[in-house]
Amino acid sequence: MNLPAAAALSWTRKLNRDLALLVLVVAGCAIPFLAQPFHMDDNFYMDMARSARAHPLFPYDTPYSFGGFHVPDMASHSHPPMQAYFLAVVQRFAGEGEGREWAYHLAALIFPLLATLSMYFVAGRFVDRPIWPALALAVSPLFLVMGHTLMTDVPMLAFWLAAIACLLWAVELNRNILYAGCSVFFFAAMFTSYQSAALLPLLGYYQLRGRGRVSGWFWLLLPPALMAAWVAMTSGHYGRLVLLDTIGYVQSRNAAALSLLGTKALALIEYQGWLVIFPLFLIYSCARGLRGRLLGLALIASVVVAQARIPGYRLLDKAIFVVGLTAGCFVFGRMSDAFLKAFLRRRGEAADGSRLGGQFLALWYFGVSAYCLLLFTEGSARYILPLVPPVLILFFQGIERSEIAEYRAEPQPLLNSGMVASGSIVLTLAWALFLAQADFEFARVYPRAAATLTRMFPGFKAYATGEWGFRYYFGLQGVPPVPPDEASVRGGSLIVTPKLALPYSLPGGLESMTSETPLVRLPFDLKTPFRIMDTHVPAGFYSTGWGLIPFSFSHQPLETIEIRQVNFMVAELPYARMECPGGTRPWPGYVWRSERRLAVLAKSGTRIVYPWSFSQALSLRLMVGISGNAASGANQACDFTILLRDAQDVILARHETTLGPGTEKGAAAWKEVRLSLPAAAPGGTLEFGYQVRGGGDLTGAFADAILVPPEREK
Amino acid sequence: MKIRMGLNAALLILTAHCLSAGAQSAGGARQPASDAVDLTARFMAEGNGDSLKQHLSVMRNGRRLDATVLVAPARARVGLSDFSGKYTLKLWAAPVFNVGDGMQMDLALVVSGARRPLFSRYLDAGRRAEDRAWIPIEVPLDLPRAGDVYLEVQVSGGPQGDLVADWLALGEVRLVRER
Questions:
Q1: In chain B, which residues touch A (CB < 8 A)?
Q2: Are B13 and A487 an interchain contact pair (Cβ–Cβ within 8 Å)?
Q3: Residues of B with CB below 8 A from A503's CB?
Q4: Nearest-CA residue of chain A relative to B127?
Q5: pLDDT single digits (tens) B32-52
Q6: What is the Cα gyration radius of chain A?
Q7: What is the pTM of this model?
Q8: How many other CB atoms are there within 10 angstroms of residue A578's CB atom?
Q9: Helices in A196-257 by DSSP H: which ranges?
Q10: Backbone angles phi, psi at A442, to 5 degrees
Q11: Are A441 and A527 within 8 A, CB to CB?
């Protein structure tokens, strides 16, 4: 390990130039994506920010629903509210609405900037040219993709790195102000994500072994104490230990189950292989041992794992998996080697400072790996963000070492150190931009989908059964999630369900009244075949629930939105006036013929009068038919009548049709009815009548009734 | 169907009653009498075992309960021989679906083979808005000291004989000792 003297990082022109370059790179990579729609869990933090504005002291004081589950408050969420407070401030000044995303992304640029600049100072303790690891972080695919979201991952990394930078230099320079800075950033990291508590043993180790000043301990222990006080205050407010529910949730998902641990371990390695540095350079830099035999062995092992673990993947996806696993294994190997050298090397072989630096990086890497494996309920690329810095530092340390060796090397290697360093930055940036563009296009699906729904079904009450950006943009269009009391969802309402964005089931009662066949199915395609999440291919950048590789290729639509309707006749039946001379009130049920149809069934002489609350013009479509054995109704005629009346009882629309089961050929089959319902003032009625002429007990069925805008009828 | 895993960052934690499903053992294991005993998961089907489904998460008017569901026609029992004295039977009942011509629910106490009706209710979520909800039921019980004692729930079809979607959910079935 090479720990340059403090003087090496004095405030020089070179330092200014380096920092300016980093700012330019971070800003340059962010500007094309400032308009990125809110994405994945951004929506959740926007909701929490709204709650924080309403209840600043207890920002969780809002009932919430997620995935169809409803909770009275958000206090047992897996993150403390730092990011919510930040977004609350932005909300206050920028407002909300489509087209304002840039203001949020611009404000949130502070986090990648802080992370990259802090990385520079952290790397400055380990390498001669800290600009390389800092630049590599700025262009790393994982950092770049996550940097365009509002989730907590990049803010947490930024605070981590700032806290670490402060501590490393506080110990080196013995400066109290740096300890105080470390304390502030450490608290911010914990107040952003609970897992940042892992910084305590890491920073404490460095402070202990680096013989930092005694007052440093005060600054290190202050953030956990403040955090504990905040948890206690929150728990007191909500009357329960809020973290217990969080832990209970992790336990309920069997996070430590062997099969899940295996999945998370594979994903951990796979993500490192593809999303830190372009894998070609990782492999070239780390896999040169044994004249390429090491690489051959790793490739064969990865192929075996692929065959055992993902036999159903396409060949292309298996190849992606094998490359990622191989590269990731070399990263893991390099970090393990560093660990062994740092902890097992005898004293005296290296300067104590160098040894401590190696131990620190190894503990950092394996500590984060351990909590990714044990604490989280699934694998996700963004979870491994805090272990990217030690990987990059060791990568560039290796390059600096090779650079020295190359002076004496004969012949010169195919790619010398300079080429590897600059090539890795350039190719990684290009690779990162491809993935960021794929993520950007993914995010843009949901504003388009929400606008399409509003255009197709103007004036309809609708509910969304999905999460992520889908929920946010449908919410902006006045389409909320299904309310806790599903009985408040009225007939004719639309249910909008995504295929990808965490769709969830309706409560049984509401589902039973909702059409099985969608009114519309809207596919949304991307311009790029790159996929970082997809239901057709195993791309699981954000979660291993979708697949074990961080990206894939597909030409199929990324997302499909289905729009179904709550059957007006069935849902509103309890509120209808019923006239049934035979005493049998109409009832909702299913009628089977060639297929199952949801219907309101009625006996002869029945009239069902629904209050009509729609003000816009609509088109009513339904099927009328005879339930049961229609052939038994010889010489009988079944009359079906539909009338729309206004509040003054004037008939605005009328449809009459007759079925003659047993007499007319084909009359026992369903008959389609289409009736235009003109716009009407509230107070009218929609009336359905059923009468059997010639006596008999045939049951009539009004099936699959739907209401659509008249223009859709054309 | 791929696993629909929520992302950690946005997952809300379900309350303990949603997660504790399965904690209760089924059957008539001897249970020391306490102030309230949860019987929800202890029902055993009489006859067709498919007519009884346990630990179904049923949501009604904003309330999600870990329920035992009977699919009509069905009869289920839970043993009460370990209890004696004055109790109140408290439970929530709800039709799972809003279609069909309704269903008849009958609660009875069976003591040494003799059936004593406790409670009857016709549930018709298709036509009655108030039945599209969890319905609270409370029945006082005087349990004898000796003999085989069972609580029996029976679900049968509606007046049109239509058994479609006649699923009855029972949640938080508790035996509460009177003081």
A1: 2-16, 18-19, 58-62, 64, 95-102, 125-129, 132-133, 158-160, 162, 164-165, 167
A2: no
A3: 4
A4: A574
A5: 445 789 999 899 988 777 888
A6: 32
A7: 0.88
A8: 15
A9: 199-209, 215-238, 242-252
A10: -60, -50
A11: yes
